[in-house]
Design brief:
Blueprint (H helix, E strand, L loop, with lengths): L1 E5 L2 E5 L15 E3 L19 H9 L1 H9 L2 H12 L4 H16 L21 H12 L1
């Protein structure tokens, strides 16, 4: 997938779409985001999009386009990673990192045990181990 920007419009080119296909508008997915479209920002499967993350994505149109291109499970991982911290300063740092890491090409948070709030899958043994260690501290 390639992302290009022209005249306040983001173009997401499908994988394998070469230079010869760029002019073929039917084969490319055109996504146009403006700051007025913030009401339609997608959320995750379990978690709703928090207002601070929504505002940060609305301020950065490239990050917003990338956010909308994520799967619902990927968006859910980012949201859970952002809201699961305890301190306000850490949460603000996570919100900033979501925007910057999306623009760096990351599709999910790095070094994250995963959303433990999902009910469609069991928690793995390794995640249970990490959670047990957290409770002891």
């Amino acid at each position: 997938m390639q992302l290009s920007y022209k005249n306040n419009t983001f173009f997401i080119l499908a994988a394998g779409a070469g230079k010869s296909n760029r002019k073929n508008k039917q084969r490319n997915l055109r996504i146009c985001y403006t700051k007025r479209m913030t009401a339609n920002i997608a959320s995750g499967t379990v978690h709703a999009l928090p207002s601070d993350l929504k505002a940060a994505l609305a301020r950065d149109t490239k990050a917003l386009a990338l956010w909308q291109s994520l799967t619902p499970l990927s968006r859910n991982e980012w949201i859970c990673w952002t809201v699961s911290v305890k301190r306000k300063e850490t949460r603000e740092a996570h919100v900033k990192r979501v925007v910057s890491e999306l623009k760096d090409g990351m599709r999910r948070p790095c070094c994250w045990i995963g959303c433990i709030h999902r009910r469609d899958k069991k928690i793995s043994r390794s995640v249970k181990f990490v959670l047990a260690k957290r409770k002891k501290q």
